[in-house]
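Blinded run. Sample ID left blank on purpose so nobody reads anything into the name before looking at the predicted structure. Input follows.
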Amino acid sequence: MAMALLPMSPCRGAMREIRHGFHCRRCVTVAASSSQPSVAADPRRAVVSSGAGDKLEICRVVNGMWQTSGGWGRIESNAAVDAMLRHFDAGLNTFDLADIYGPAEELYGVFINRLRRERGEEAAIQARGLTKWVPSPVKITRQFVESSIDRSRKRMDVKCLDMLQFHWWEYSNPGYLDALKHLTDLKEEGKIKTLALTNFDTKRLEIIVNKDIPIVSNQVQHSLVDMRPQKHMKDVCEQSGVKLITYGTVMGGLLSEKFVDANVSIPFAGPALDTPSLKKYKQMVNAWGGWDLFQELLKTCQQVAMKHGVSISTVAVRYILDQPCVAGSMVGVRLGISEHLKDSEAIFQLKLDEDDVDRIGSVISRGKDLMAVIGDCGDEYRRA
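Blinded prediction complete.
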């Protein structure tokens, strides 16, 4: 995968009374906004919102903190927080984390406290922490849910989580609906500002929004290789107003100049696939069409990148940000180890023209349909 006390939302009783109005507002919102995310005055920002009136402004390039969980190099706390401050100062104020990403939530807590102490509360409330709750498949009770959310609030040192993105491992266990009910209660009590999902498939997303659970976004894998969210999920998002936050958009770094003409089949002959993300997304390449077709995609993106004076990864993120219903895309940050602030800044400046889109799309279309190979979004986490 890929988280400021504010006024509380209307109570569920009020939501029931305006249920018909909620559906009507949903249709009106979709008609008014088309398929693109609602944006604030700054085109770098997007607003995710629900029919219940919850909303959150985020940066469209999201700093992904999966890399703090181990496997990418040792994270040193002070250097990591310094790097978070540099991203914040560059306008990249939105961080994606999770309760299972090693020290990610604690690092955010140190970061937000430095902002309060060094810049003041007005600066601190501009930061966004989008965390995830990834529970084991156990019996869901109000006490269990609340204690999990309170743990994240304590780690992140916030009274109210900006966004709680919920993941569920096994759909045969319907406990995910119980969990979402309790999460909605906690949102109404002021412990969560916005409620979201991560790695839910289209069928379950539709079930959830039809139960009037106030979901603002679903975080899913989405890249030039993995276009599954644009198959069926896009339709549910357009109908409901739910937005997509994407991860795996640069495929752990595979979508970069480093891998053009690289031979990864022979040890030591090319760049090493030496991180969890590179290994994961190489498997996606294999499922999609193999390394030769991926090389064609890389070289096509390189030609587009050279035309605009940017990097391949910048082109890859811009292409996905321009897809229907996408509010934000993740760029992984190896805090204190390496940075890509210049490339992230270039994403906001880049405008792909019709020829760019057609050239990239012509290669994408030659890959296998991952819906048929893997299943819907998130199914890769639910199959042996």
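Unblinding after everyone has recorded impressions. Residues 1-40 have pLDDT under 50 and may be disordered.
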